[in-house]
């Protein structure tokens, strides 16, 4: 039998060891965190308080805002704490908690983007059946399934991590706890963890990406069949914001997880992780509000002093 002395805490490598860069990052990401939380909160409240926005598209957008708040709040506060010099240590339980919530939110966001693509497909390709196919019970079922399936997936991965032993070293080569970086530190076999990670990546990443692309192929084909230029413009405007968000989100996720785990690629992975944990949650409210007149009107009604 092997005797293990499990580590009680991990040390996060952080974004950069250069003091000048740390000060710049502190200011930069403090602003991003504030903007992300404020912008998504405004979007969520505007949709919730405005009856005219109680439609499937905005219902899913409100869920996306909640996910963005949870995503950035899971990662950035701990990163900012390390940047102000309070140490980059995180407890074993704190690390697993961060992994659970981040995996939950990231998986849910991928599923939600697929549900939003389906909503746009029905709206443009099958408008006469929209009220039936995207009724309130159907939307609630879709949103509930998104949260539940991702929570189950996250629980499985966290449970598989709990069974592992970590006996040193305890330095995580990232600015937050994530499954691939933590598996590299395990003293126990991680074969099952790696298999489940691949299955999850295929389902949440590849399959949902394909579903989204298939939906948009039908959408684009349907738009091209519209004869008037004004009709094409109006149809495309209903899904352009979602398409921008999908492109931004999937490009950063794919870039982060196709990189090998060593050398300069780890630094590239950090950059990609910053994009989907800080930049994307900040830009999403701007993308949807700047390109959507209904959201602008709702924000002006609910928050006249802000707009």
UniProtKB/TrEMBL annotation:
Belongs to the G-protein coupled receptor 1 family. The keyword Nucleus does not apply. It comes from the Eukaryota. Residues 39-288 form the G-protein coupled receptors family 1 profile domain. It comes from Microtus ochrogaster. PANTHER family: OLFACTORY RECEPTOR (PTHR26452). CDD domains: 7tmA_OR13-like. This is Olfactory receptor. InterPro entries: GPCR_Rhodpsn, GPCR_Rhodpsn_7TM, Olfact_rcpt, Olfactory_GPCR. Keywords: Cell membrane, G-protein coupled receptor, Membrane, Olfaction, Receptor, Sensory transduction, Transducer, Transmembrane, Transmembrane helix. The keyword Transmembrane applies.
